[in-house]
Amino acid sequence: MNEITVTHILFVSTALFFIGMYGLFTRRNMITMLMAVELILNSVNINFVAFNKYVYPGKLDGIFFTIFVITIAAAEAAVAIAIIINLYRSHHSIDVEDASELKY
Amino acid sequence: MNASVIIFYIISAFILGAGLLAVTARKIFRSAIWLLFSLIGIASLYFWMEVEFVAAVQIVVYVGGIVVLIIFSIFLTQKSGDEMPKPVKQRAIFSALAVLFGCGFVFNLIREFGFTSINQQPFEVKVSDIGMQMLSTSDYGFVLPFEVVSILLLAALIGCIVIAMKVKHTEK
Fold first, then answer.
1. What was the pLDDT predicted at B122?
2. Cα–Cα distance, B11 to B37 (Å, whole number)
3. Contact A53, B123 (CB under 8 A)
4. To 10 degrees, the CA torsion angle through A10, A16, A20, A22?
5. Which of A49, B9, B20, B40 has the most CB atoms around its CB within 10 Å?
6. Do B156 and A79 touch (CB under 8 A)?
7. B133: nearest Cα among A64, A76, A92
8. ipTM score for this prediction
9. pLDDT tens per residue across span B79-116
10. Contact partners, residue B139, CB within 8 Å, separation at least 6
11. Domains of chain A, with CATH numbers?
């Protein structure tokens, strides 16, 4: 209780991961599902930085992984939003239940 | 219980509260704003861990880029004042159960494992070290992933333009 160890930070990131998971399960709107995915990616980034700081303080690998994950998350968000806008143009809705042409 | 510990608990409560509101708020625009606060909280957690460079990248890319992109797409596709429909009760209950079970399982796993932190060596991240290692071609250099990621960003840029481009119907 007197000192923050890596375990405390892992608790926070685990809770954030499962909050994002709950959003991904319950939301049916594509933009809000994208927000839940962003929360999950951020919890992974917290893990990388915490392990780098507390377990391997002499190296920088966790920092690099965090930077690359942020880059790829930005690219993923841009592509996802392009797809969402295109879907809205053809279906006039971004609910995942309405986009069911490829289901069967 | 010194100031650093108290600040850590405040930051964690802020992150988790804002994240929980981001996935449960009924109005989509409010949900985006709660996501913004949660991301700012994560940036302050990076500041607390003394990795200022990652915190700055987090603020620039997430808060300045992705959240603004999400807000624009909300304005393009939704009536942002309307409330979203409630999730189906059965689905909400079962996903909450699954999440609580998974959370308890992983918490237990972390608690039992007991990571040993090495605190002898001070952890300082100099931006010059990051830059040197990022572009170094020797062992433990990250120049190959750097180039691959730059190609990926270019491909994503072109792909977004192609996907979102309006198709002109000329042959009608």
1. 74
2. 11
3. yes
4. 100
5. A49
6. yes
7. A64
8. 0.91
9. 777 777 787 889 899 999 999 999 999 999 998 887 77
10. none
11. 6-91 (1.10.287.3510)
Q: What is the pLDDT of residues A3-12, one digit of tens each?
A: 778 889 999 9
**DSSP structure class, residue B165:** S
Residues 10-69 of B with CB under 8 A from A: 12, 15-16, 19-20, 22-24, 28, 31-32, 35, 38-39, 42, 45-46, 49-51, 53-54, 57-58, 61-62, 65-66, 69
B134 CB contacts (<8 Å, ≥6 apart)?
A64, B141, B142, B143, B146
Contact B77 A84 (CB under 8 A): yes
Q: What single string gives the DSSP state of each residue in B34-92?
A: HHHHHHHHHHHHHHHTT-HHHHHHHIIIIIIIIHHHHHHHHHHHS-TTSBPPPPPHHHH
